[in-house]
Amino acid sequence: MLAVEGIDVRYGDLQALWDLSMEVSQGEVVALIGSNGAGKSTLLRAIMGLLKPTKGLIRLDEVMLSRLPTHKIVDAGVVMVPEGRGLFPKMTVLENLELGAFVDRARQKKSYTVEWLYEIFPVLRERSIQMAGSLSGGQQQMLAIAKGLMARPQFVLLDEISSGLAPVLVKQILRVVDEIRKQGMGVILVEQNVFLTLEIADRGYVLENGRIVAKGDAASLSQSSRIKEAYLGQKKIDKT
Amino acid sequence: MVEVFFQVLIYGICIGALYGLAASGLALIFGVMDVLQIAHGSIVMLGAYACFWLYNLLRIDPLLSLPVVGVLFFVVGALLFILLFAPITKYSAEARVKNSMLLAFGLILVIDNLTTMAWTGNIRTVNPFYQGLAFRFGGLHFPYVGLISLGLAGFIIIGLGLFLKKTYTGKSIRATAQSAESASLSGINVRRTYLAAIGIGTALGAAAGVLVLLSSGVDPAIGMDWTLKSLLVTVLAGTGNVAGVFVCGLFFGVLESVGSMVLGPYKEVIGLALFVVILFVRPQGLFSGSLGKSALRKS
Q: CB 3.0–4.6 Å: which of A20, B177, B187, B199 could bond A74 by disulfide?
């Protein structure tokens, strides 16, 4: 289990997260919902050790992640697919995948994992010797997810993986989340599209101003008045 | 006249190989970690001295001491990182460039003055048996030292290129050059990668120093000149790929050599004029590749 227990995170004088706790189990998809600036990406960055909490702790079972540098957290079994994709644009698709399997544990299973991912994303096999920077937005997104999975993680943090993609691609990519869950990995999913996210998530947390203001299973969250208030209006506008 | 031109061309290529080798070290360090190690010329000078003393005291041939000097200066580079440059790598790229220049400028003063104190300002040379000999062909003069320098420098650059392309450590260096954050999220130990990059870069500078000693000797004042040449070549090439830096070094050597034939004592103007033109026309350099930085295309 990946657990965040009462963390505070600051950017200098500005406090971004307040006494925040959450958890995700293996084989579970947990959605993080909240407006821009609510602290969703900050939380993911804190889990990855890119920001250090000033209070509280983050652990993976008995391993204290909050005391480890980022590369050791990846080694322990947690990866993030960052917003903006985190690829190496001037390296080939295959080189990006290989770097995804940089940690020892993953390196041994590298060729096996690549084959598995080529089956999920056949387009990556076709483009394997092309520069990552020359792929289309959707293909880059697939590569980013595949690169994360190359590390054979126990937990995957997905930050806005569908942003800027056509609706049909969004559905395709979210289906992959389902596949990741079937493999027994835990997923934290941050998405703009709240209702689509809650459709595939098991549970969700709602963030506002760096605090968790609501949590529960996905079905009841999508019915809750707070969510409807905050997001349903927007959805109506989208439809017209 | 044609013969003179070709002779000048040969000399230019031989000296250009040294420019390319020295600059590749500076470009590697800057490309990977945004540290502008302007004391690189002083490293070239120290490498030459290391080789000189190995020759003078232990009678080790400069070509045999080249790998020894390389390993020694990898350690020197690693120490420079741990003691001097590591603390500034936590800042933004822009702050790193400025702070590293200040730090390295102080380093120049310390190294150059300590060297003068310890070993005087006299020029030191070595005289292995092949020194001053040349191979003649079609009325042209190919100095052995120049040919050896060209061959060794080319060999080192090709080796470095393969290392960066094929090995996991090499790939982690290229990945860190493109984005340190993405590299750490891939499980790469960025700090260790920085250490490797500055170690290799420093070793390359010292290796160039060994060849400089062979071709023209060493004194404590050559550092600044080699820093300038390395910077010029790096700006010309960009930090994109080591082969590009080497080719630009050769080009620059030829340009300077031909220029000195035409312009005589004003040859230094050529490099600086080229510098200005490149900064106006193509500030990212002529070559760009996986060691360079760029924002990922957003679509």
A: B187
Chain B residues near residue A107 by CB distance under 8 angstroms: 168
CA nearest B178: which of B126, B118, B240? B240
pTM of the model: 0.90
Identify all chain A residues contacting B180, using CB atoms and an 8 Å cutoff: none
Residues B156 and B22: beta-carbon distance below 8 Å: no
B170-227 per-position pLDDT tens digit: 999 999 999 999 999 999 999 999 999 999 999 999 999 999 999 999 999 999 999 9
Region of poorest pLDDT, from A23-37, A224-238, B68-82:
A224-238
Distances (CA, A) of B203 to A113, B67, B147, B249: 37, 9, 21, 18
Q: How far apart are CA A1 and CA A60, in angstroms?
A: 6
What secondary structure does DSSP assign to B36-73, as a single string?
Answer: --TTHHHHHHHHHHHHHHHHHHH---HHHHHHHHHHHH
**Cβ-Cβ contacts under 8 Å, A74 against chain B:** 184-187
Neighbours of A221 (CB within 10 A): 22
Low-confidence stretches of chain B (pLDDT beneath 70): 286, 288-299
Q: Does B170 touch chain A (CB under 8 A)?
A: no
Nearest to B184 among A70, A90, A137 (CB): A70
The alpha-carbon radius of gyration of chain B (Å, integer) is 19
Q: What is the mean pLDDT of residues A96-125?
A: 93
Q: Is residue B296 less than 8 Å (CB to CB) from chain A? A: yes
Contacts of A38 by beta carbon, 8 Å cutoff, 6+ apart: A207, A208, A209, A210
Tell me whether B167 touches chain A (CB under 8 Å): no
Work out the minimum CA distance from A81 to partner chain B, whole angstroms: 8
